[in-house]
Every structure is written in structure tokens, then in C-alpha cells.
Amino acid sequence: MKILALSGSIRANSYNTALVKTLQKLNSDVEVYEELAELPIFNPDLDIYTLEEDNSPKKVVEFRAKIREADVFVISTPEYAHQISGVLKNALDWLVSSDCIVAKPTVVISASTSAMGGDKAHAQLVALLKVISQNILEDASLIVTCVNKKIDSNGTVVDKDLRKELETLLEKIKR
Asked: How confident is the model at residue 175 (pLDDT cuts 50, 70, 90)?
């Protein structure tokens, strides 16, 4: 089973990136997409997609191909001012016209240093994904509260409960 994981943060020491990289360490079937910052700003004039061919920018075509090839898509989002990040929204905008994401089983993770765990960004992302024909695996999704107390400065999950939640998430995906 191929699992593509994406962090909605491009911050160097991102907790969300640490989470998807932990998933990768726990399961070699997880590939982490690390080129989010390289996707061009969404422009409908450049989004030239049909079922027969995709003449959109090269990075977009590659991104869509990775999602198409994956059996499951995992997105981990930070929360900025109760919203998902701009770079994540940009990436999702590039998927709207494509068929690569339609009905794709998707897991949503949100992580925040707050006691709310990015719940508003989580809800926003789930709603957005449903609009673009997603198949949200809600029983596998995860909200991580006070993440700064659960991941050390090296990006290692040090909280045993969080590590177990990530292991359980992977088990649910495989069902």
C-alpha cells in the first residue's frame, strides 16, 4: 500500500513535518512529499488539465501524479489564525480541476501548540477536501494538542501516547 504524506507547513522545524516523518519511520510504505514550497502560486490560466493530458506547470503535474499513485493521502496541517496555511491551500487549489484526488482515501491530522490542537484548521481542511470529492477517513484522523510538548527540538515524537496514536492511525489506514 502506498501512502503519500504531506505537511502543510514549510517551517524548518515544523511539528507537522515531524509528524509525517514519524509516520514514515513507522511504516516504509509512507512517502513524504517535501516539495510543497516549490509549487507555483495557483493561477487558473496555467491549470491546463484534461482527462487526456495535463499541461499544467511541471511541479503541479508531478504533485498530481504522486497523489494519483498513492492508495492513501495523509495531510498534516498547522493552524494559522484559525485557518490552514497558505501553502497548503495553494496546493489544494491545484487539485480542484484534476481527477487525482477524487474519492482518494484521505487522513487529516492537525497539530498545534494550543490546547485546541488546531481544531479550526482541521475542520476547515475536512470541509475543503469534501468539496473537492475527497473520501475522508475520519476514524483515522487525528487532532494533536500541545504538540510542542510532545515533539522534541530534533523532530522526534517523545510522547508515548502520541506515538501510539500514530501507530493506530497507520493500522486504521491498512484496514
From this structure: confident
Locate cell 495535463: which residue? Answer: 54
Residue 32 main-chain phi, psi, to 5 deg:
-95, 125
| pTM over the 0.70 mark | yes
- Residue pair 90/39 in contact by the 8 Å Cβ criterion: yes
CA distances from 43 to 11, 97, 99 (A): 24, 12, 18
pLDDT band at 161 (very low <50, low <70, confident <90, very high): very high
Judged by DSSP in three states, 121 sits in helix
**Contact (Cβ atoms closer than 8 angstroms) between residue 45 and residue 78:** no
Residue 50 backbone zone (phi > 0: left; psi -120 to 50: alpha; other: beta): beta
**What does the DSSP assignment read for 15-40?**
HHHHHHHHHHHH-TTEEEE--GGGSP
18 closest CA partner among 115, 159, 114, 126: 159
Q: What is the DSSP string of 120-168?
A: HHHHHHHHHHHHTT-EE-TTT-EEE-SGGGTB-TTS-B--HHHHHHHHH
Torsion of CA 52, 99, 43, 85, to 10 degrees: -160
Q: What does the block give as the cell for 2?
A: 502506498
CA atoms of 97 and 121, how far apart (whole Å)? 23
- CATH code of 3-174, in short, is 3.40.50.360
Query: What 3-state class would DSSP assign to 169?
Result: helix
